Automatic annotation (TrEMBL):
It comes from the Bacteria. SMART domains: Prim-Pol. Pfam families: Prim-Pol. InterPro entries: DNA_primase/pol_bifunc_N. Residues 6-171 form the DNA primase/polymerase bifunctional N-terminal domain. It comes from Couchioplanes caeruleus subsp. caeruleus. This is DNA primase.
Length: 285
């Protein structure tokens, strides 16, 4: 199954690489007891640089490692918006005016989404929106029918057509900016990650308030505190107004069922802590 899929991707010009797979007990086939990316890192010694469309080489790899997950080199045939949480899905929809991107869509084994786009000639970006990474030049993604450490599988929701669509302009503007070193992931605090602070902040506010509003019982106050801290960092950087954040978080807390006094105390505490550690925009152009 994995070999057939790998060969099919290669026939469409997408360089393929074998990736470690989940082992029993939630571990990784790499054997490291504390692997931080079980079933998600390359099996090859030289990693992404060995990705290939050669069917003979691919057949050799999967003959040696028949359970290997399938990795796809991005930035050549497609780039991928990697949405890893409900907050990311909500933030992306908000950025795109309530619509999900057209084109190929993958449901990941961890419950997230991969949206395929035509290559935009940018490198990898971490957190272009809360819960959304961009995989471009120098990156790779795990592809269907690979298996997640949870025991679930990656699968197609919308299969690829002739060519992926171009990324919407609002998304392109967020990922634009100086490229990080080849194949690297730039942390959120790097100001080059936030090319359009206003759009980023609006999406962050929408995502965090949604997370608070739909937090499950037993996690609601902690979720509110985390959201207030995250948004407080943006307030401290001058990207959001404290009154607006407070108003939106109070409404979300009320929707979730939190008491008024408890909500106000938690928001004030989280915002104050966040403002003391603002997102760094000191060198933003």
């Amino acid at each position: 199954m994995m070999l057939d899929a790998a060969l099919a991707y290669a026939r469409h010009g997408i360089p393929v690489l074998p990736v470690h797979w989940p082992a029993p007990g939630g571990s990784c086939s790499c054997g490291r007891p504390r692997c931080d990316r079980p079933g998600k890192h390359p099996r090859l010694r030289h990693g992404l640089t060995e990705a290939s469309i050669d069917p003979h080489r691919i057949a050799q790899w999967w003959s040696r490692w028949p359970e290997a997950n399938v990795g796809l080199h991005t930035g050549i045939v497609m780039d991928v918006a990697d949405v890893d949480s409900p907050e990311g899905w909500h933030a992306l929809r908000h950025l795109l005016g309530g619509e999900l991107p057209a084109g190929p869509q993958v449901r990941t084994g961890g419950g997230g989404w991969h949206f395929w786009f035509r290559p935009a000639n940018f490198g990898n970006r971490v957190r272009v929106l809360p819960g959304v990474d961009w995989r471009g030049c120098g990156g790779y993604v795990i592809a269907p029918p690979s298996r997640h450490v949870k025991g679930t599988y990656y699968y197609w929701v919308v299969r690829p057509g002739v060519e992926p669509p171009a990324a919407p302009e609002a998304l392109r503007e967020l990922i634009a900016g100086p490229d990080p070193p080849f194949g690297s992931d730039v942390p959120l605090a790097d100001p080059t990650m936030i090319a359009h602070p206003g759009r980023y902040a609006a999406a962050a506010l929408e995502a965090e308030t949604h997370r608070v509003a739909y937090a499950v019982v037993g996690t609601r106050n902690d979720t509110l505190n985390r959201a207030a801290f995250a948004l407080g960092r943006l307030v401290g950087a001058g990207m959001l107004d404290a009154a607006t954040v407070t108003r939106e978080l109070r409404a979300a807390g009320a929707w979730a069922g939190l008491g008024r006094d408890e909500t106000i105390r938690t928001i004030r505490s989280g915002l104050d802590a966040g403002r003391r550690s603002p997102t760094n925009l000191a060198s933003h152009p």
